[in-house]
């Protein structure tokens, strides 16, 4: 999952950045409206966190321009305490949720996870494609009720594929959403990661949860289980 944060208070930006990365997110950060606007227009991001009070163009304007240009990723705004009008204006400009400063990082993380899920049509925190269940809150995975140990990247890969269950996801798309710009983006790395994830989910090769479509990419094949 790739997250953009636009925040001009450097210590806060760095705190959020560090925390998100420790959770396995790829993070793009900007300290002003212009560069944030650009990143949201040009990068394949999954969600944006936007501070409304920015030194150049304000957060509201950034959001309006993204929405006008057809960018549909979920947006969470950060507002200053006591400025309720900002929340209204932000939501009306196209934001999906807000947090009032100061906030707990845990609350930010919980809201981001919910926004990403809901944007893909999952209303429950547990993504269930029987027998695979991925709990986005606890960040745990079970197969047939038995816990599976995954690394942060394996988890993020599975989460991305399950959020887009049934869709073909190209290697390029996966790489862009899992890794940061400056990281090693060799497609072999992704193939190895997919191979490891498959072995952990399906050691006996009975389920084949992740299909490879030659030249097109991967697809999480098990159907979504109705709640
Ligand atoms: Ca600010």
Radius of gyration: 18 Å
Q: Give me the side-by-side strand order of the main sheet.
A: 2-1-3-4-5
Secondary-structure element order, as H and E?
A: EHEHEHEHEHEEEEHHHEE
> What is the tally of beta strands?
11
The unique ligands bound to this protein are:
calcium ion
Question: What gross morphology would you assign?
Answer: elongated
Give the fraction of residues assigned to helices: 40-55%
Q: Can you tell me the CATH superfamily of the largest domain?
A: Response regulator
Distance between the termini: 24 Å
Total helical elements? 8
Written description of the protein model:
With 227 residues, the chain is α/β, with parallel strands linked by helices. The protein folds into two domains: 2-119, Response regulator (Rossmann fold, 3-Layer(aba) Sandwich), CATH 3.40.50.2300; 126-220, Orthogonal Bundle (Arc Repressor Mutant, subunit A), CATH 1.10.10.10. Helix content is 41%, strand content 21%. It contains eight helices and eleven strands. It has helices at residues 10-22, 33-42, 59-68, 84-93, 105-119, 152-163, 171-178, 187-201, and strands spanning 2-6, 26-30, 47-51, 75-79, 97-100, 126-129, 132-135, 140-143, 146-148, 210-213, 217-220. Strands 2-1-3-4-5 form a five-stranded parallel β-sheet, with helices on both faces. Helix 1 (10-22) links the parallel strand 1 (2-6) and strand 2. Helix 6 crosses helix 8. The chain is elongated. The two termini are 24 Å apart. The chain binds calcium ion. Calcium ion (CA) is lined by residues 8-9, 51, 53-54. Calcium ion is lined by residues 8-9, 51, 53-54.
């Amino acid at each position: 999952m790739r997250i953009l944060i636009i925040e001009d208070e450097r210590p806060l930006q760095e705190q959020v950045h560090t925390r998100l990365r420790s959770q396995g997110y790829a993070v793009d950060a900007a300290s002003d409206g212009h560069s944030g606007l650009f990143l949201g227009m040009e990068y394949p991001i999954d969600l944006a966190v936007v501070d409304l009070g920015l030194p150049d163009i304000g957060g509201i304007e950034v959001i309006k321009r993204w929405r006008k240009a057809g960018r549909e990723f979920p947006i969470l705004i950060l507002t200053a305490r006591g400025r309720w009008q900002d929340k209204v204006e932000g939501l009306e400009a196209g934001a999906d949720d807000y947090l009032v400063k100061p906030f707990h990082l845990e609350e930010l993380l919980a809201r981001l996870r919910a926004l990403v899920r809901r944007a893909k049509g999952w209303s429950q925190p547990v993504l269930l494609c029987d027998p695979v269940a991925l709990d986005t809150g606890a960040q745990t995975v079970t197969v047939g009720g038995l816990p599976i140990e995954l690394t942060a990247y394996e988890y993020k890969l599975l989460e991305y594929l399950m959020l887009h269950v049934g869709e073909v996801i190209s290697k390029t798309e996966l790489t862009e959403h899992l890794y940061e710009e400056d990281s090693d983006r060799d497609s072999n790395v992704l193939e190895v990661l997919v191979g490891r994830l498959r072995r952990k989910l399906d050691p006996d090769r009975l389920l084949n949860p992740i299909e490879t479509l030659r030249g097109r990419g991967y697809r999480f094949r098990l159907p979504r289980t109705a709640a």
